[in-house]
Amino acid sequence: MSDEDDIILSELNDEELVQQMFDDLYDGLKEEIEEGVNILLERGWEPYRILTEALVGGMTIVGHDFRDGILFVPEVLLAANAMKGGMAILKPLLAETGAPRVGKMVIGTVKGDIHDIGKNLVGMMMEGAGFEVVDIGINNPVENYIETARTEGADIIGMSALLTTTMPYMKVVIDGLVAEGIRDDYIVLVGGAPLNEEFGKAIGADAYCRDAAVAVETAKEWMARKHNQMSA
Ligand code: B1M
Fold first, then answer.
1. Which residues are registered as beta bridge partners of 115?
2. Correct CATH for 3-97 of 3.40.50.300, 1.10.1240.10, 1.20.1070.10, 3.40.50.720
3. For 62-103, what is each residue's pLDDT tens digit?
4. What is the pLDDT at residue 213?
5. Ligand 1, CB within 6 Å, residue ranges
6. Is 229's pLDDT higher than 60?
7. Mutation pick for ligand 1 pocket among 66, 127, 208 (CB with most ligand atoms within 8 Å)
8. Which CATH class is domain 104-231?
9. pTM for this entry
10. d(Cα 149, Cα 155) in Å, to the nearest integer?
11. Rg for the chain (alpha carbons), in Å?
12. Where are the domains of the chain?
């Protein structure tokens, strides 16, 4: 039996448990991550705190070692899978606010890009804040955004990109909206690790959102503006 098998998660204090969850996420141990999330919930941690401190915190370490060539794609996929296990437990809890529907968002990762953890997190937080979310998944060409926004009667189009090579595609989607004469029908929000405010402005998005919490706040602000314009 290895040392790892001897660790009983529920016997660790909060700080040790979070450290252990970082290790377990790094090792792609989905069941352990799920157990850790459940223990923190039982100890009264807010779902959002678990998400940001234990899961996103752990994924940041994975990201650094991926960048530095210490971890490779198969290992990062396992880590992502473990993170998704934890997120699945938190999702209904984050959505449990009972807030009235405040708007509808279509969200997806752009063409050429298969990263979906950040997008999923944004979707979860938006649902938690009372938005209806239509998730079109990963690797989306411009048509997917436009068709879905139209058929769903969305207020907001949200795009995610994690690669410097795929972020320019966000402009292709915005240009597509302009070409169809429907750019102003939607609030366009963009996000993803390699983006910044300037990039958002340069491509003609309404706003760049640094993280999921900012996405929620920004979406609320823009929905309020939209309602004000409509009633003016
Ligand atoms: Co990839 N990958 N990856 N990867 N990966 C990055 C992005 C990278 C930075 C790693 C690195 O080198 N340090 C690097 C990109 C370098 C660059 O472009 N400059 C990279 C690379 C190179 C690649 C491949 C090319 C590797 C290869 O094959 N050689 C390949 C590309 C595949 C493709 O897409 N075509 C690849 C593949 C993968 C996996 C499949 C193994 C896996 C993805 C699994 C999955 O998503 N299901 C993966 C992962 C997990 C990562 C890292 C480690 C983690 C990303 C993540 O989930 N972060 C990442 C390193 C890093 O970012 N530190 C990396 C956690 C997540 C919560 O954060 O996604 O930033 P994030 O989302 C945040 C905000 O950005 C914002 O809110 C979120 C929550 O707060 N946000 C939005 C995101 N989207 C938003 C949309 C909005 C609003 C806000 O709309 C309104």
1. none
2. 1.10.1240.10
3. 888 988 999 998 998 899 899 989 999 998 888 775 556 689
4. 81
5. 56, 59, 62-63, 66-67, 73, 76-77, 80, 107, 112-119, 121-122, 158-160, 162-164, 189-194, 209, 211-212, 215
6. yes
7. 66
8. alpha beta
9. 0.86
10. 8
11. 19
12. 3-97, 104-231
